[in-house]
Amino acid sequence: MKPLFHGLVETLVRLTSGLAIALSAASLVAPAQAMTIDKKLVVTVRTVCNDDGIDCSFQGPAGNLFYETVGDKIWAQAGIDLEFVLGLNVNSTELLTGPVAGLSAFTGATAGTGTTMYLTSSLHCVGCVLFGEAWLGAGGLVINMDAVASFNSGIGRLDTIAHELGHNLGLYTGVGAVGGHDNGNTHFLIASGGVRLIPSALGDICPHPSAASCLDYLKPEHISVARASSLLVAIPEPATLLMAVFGLVVVGTAAQRRLNTTSQTPWPSLMPRFSNLVSGR
Q1: Which DSSP category does 13 fall into?
Q2: What is the average per-residue pLDDT within 18-35?
Q3: Mind giving me the DSSP string for 216-240?
Q4: What is the DSSP string of 64-95?
């Protein structure tokens, strides 16, 4: 099935508390726990600048580019590490200022491991603020970093990138899905922007000892779907890495012994070989 793209839209008229939410915060399977990190999502970051290669989009707060500490904590619930790698900048004033075509103007849905994230300063949305878009179940996303950074009086919409990466990882097409979202609980990471409670600090985010305070929660089904994504790569276990290092040591030791044996060969035995080389000219 052709992947769908998703837009995280925050309307200018905020949704009221009268929204029907199927589950309460107390119904979370809590407390959320971090799993052993054994999978990794490599995110290639392409920063959009103007045509002259200057006036580039924001990359995130100093010391926390791409809100990586937030994303790593959220996705630790699924045993997934986020690895951000800087790619080439994109010099395009059109893309920087929000093309009408949206996500498809930046990238199509991509297969293979990893995903590519475009950082821009605006996304086209009539009468609303669009924070990000991502392909559902495939690589490729774009983030409106100006809107993300200015949210909540400059604290930032901390979980937007983690949310959009969730769409890349296949969330959400399960029971009750609405436009790629699971709006069954205001605490779910993959709930839509008008429903989801947004954290104001790292301490608000799952894993958290208290269910009532745990935001950006991944329920077991979310974790299962995300971990099955073909975008992920496995991280070798420490024991596997130790065996690999041991193997290199063994190979290196054997090579050194051969080198020592060769260097101890008596000089006269090498003379005929040298003579042959010279006379063979």
Answers
A1: S
A2: 58
A3: SB--HHHHHHHHT-TT-EEPPPHHH
A4: SGGGHHHHHHHHGGGTEEEEEEE---EE-HHH
Architecture of domain 5-231: 3-Layer(aba) Sandwich (3.40)
Q: How many residues does the chain have?
A: 281
Nearest residue to 199 (alpha-carbon basis) of 166, 207, 169:
207
Maximal CA-CA distance, the chain: 97
Closest alpha carbon to 47 in 116, 138, 101: 116
CA distances from 81 to 72, 78, 143, 266, 276 (A): 6, 9, 20, 56, 60
Residue with tokens 């179940």: 137
DSSP state of 15: P
Q: How many CB atoms lie within 10 A of CB 178?
A: 12
Contact assessment for residue 207 and residue 17, using Cβ atoms and an 8 Å cutoff: no
Q: Residue ranges of the domains in the chain?
A: 5-231, 238-264
pLDDT (tens digit, 9 = 90+) per residue, 244-272? 444 555 555 555 666 555 555 454 444 44
What are the backbone angles phi and psi of residue 219, rounded to the nearest 5°?
A: -80, 165
| Beta carbons of 106 and 95 less than 8 angstroms apart | yes
Residues 6+ apart with CB under 8 A from 108: 135, 140
Give yes or no for a contact between 7 and 125, defined as CB atoms under 8 angstroms apart.
yes
DSSP 163: H
Give dist(CA 99, CA 90) in Å, integer.
14
The torsion angles phi and psi of 102, rounded to 5 degrees, stand at 65, -140
Burial (0-12, 13-18, 19+ Cβ within 10 Å), 104 = middle
Say if residue 143's pLDDT is above 60: yes
- Tell me the C-alpha distance between 60 and 73, whole Å: 17
